[in-house]
# Entry
Amino acid sequence: MPDLNAQQGLIYEGNIHAQRYIGGVLGHKAIGPFEVTALSLTVSNEVQERRSRLVGQSGKVRGSFARSNPTQISLSANAANADLYALFLLGSVAAHSLTGGTVTAESVASMEHDKWYKLAQANVSAVVIATRTLGIDYEVDARLGMIRSLSTGAIANNATVLVNYSYGAISGTSIRVGTESKVDVRLLGRLVNSETGAHAILDVPKVTLSPDGDIALIGDDYQTMTLTGSCVLMDGESADLYLRDPVTYT
# Structure
């Protein structure tokens, strides 16, 4: 059994999971583990002091009381899947699916030369403007479903053209950004002290998280995402956060 009075260096690595509260009810699905780059706690209180104004005692504290503040958590990660990404973007996850088909004589009006115009569909192919040549008179961004007439080609500036094309099916995952005003989760983590190998458990019954800082969707380095929030003291709990260190598995 570890000596709980022995001092030791503390440097943790850990697998942190989150369970979302949906409509106030804790879901069973655990999201994670996060690729955690940093997890920090801030514990503080507010102290109120009763100071004397008696002669010879002015400014001295004659009484005080303190109130504990909620435990604050800051969690950063540099990788995510859709469910984790949705947490960092105050969003939700849904399946995204579009079926394929064909379009005949879609009108694209008043096309300025060398300017892109959006077709009604994306993931397009076999894009045809009658009597005109792809790559000479017009160009296509097939994935986005965009088209432009070229100033070097035979399509007149500001002309209206009729476009025939096919479009393929699209399927994937959609993160609906900003659909949630707040994210309530339970955090559960398995920690290991890198120095000693001792095991610990982090258990946060409920914390309200908010994104902190920008997420560089396009940039020079990997995205770093941060969530911060206040722990909530739940009914029946004796604390708003538990750090069980060490724990022994038998």
In short: The mean pLDDT is 94.
